[in-house]
Amino acid sequence: MRKPEANAIALCPVCRQPMRPTSEKCPSCGAERHYGPRVLESAVCAFAGMVLLAALSTLLLPISLWTIMFAAIGLVAGFLFSHNRFSGDRWLK
Known about the structure:
Elements: E1 10-11, E2 18-19, E3 32-35, H1 39-60, H2 65-85, E4 89-92
Antiparallel strand pairs: 1-2, 3-4
Helix pairs in contact: 1-2
């Protein structure tokens, strides 16, 4: 691979090797640029929100239709939290 010209060099945020500024993947370490949350991060946050709000509702009320409604609200809240928390672009190896 040719080395990039001096005026078109950016450093990889992970390994600090020279690369093109428009690259989506570092040629030396293999780190990739990700926009937004990954599927696993969205799933974990949504599941955690569902479980936490369902547990909170069972502490306040006996298990009923409200528990299912709180679980659904927690699922949506966790999903929105993951999109807020991991909204920017980041480099992941």
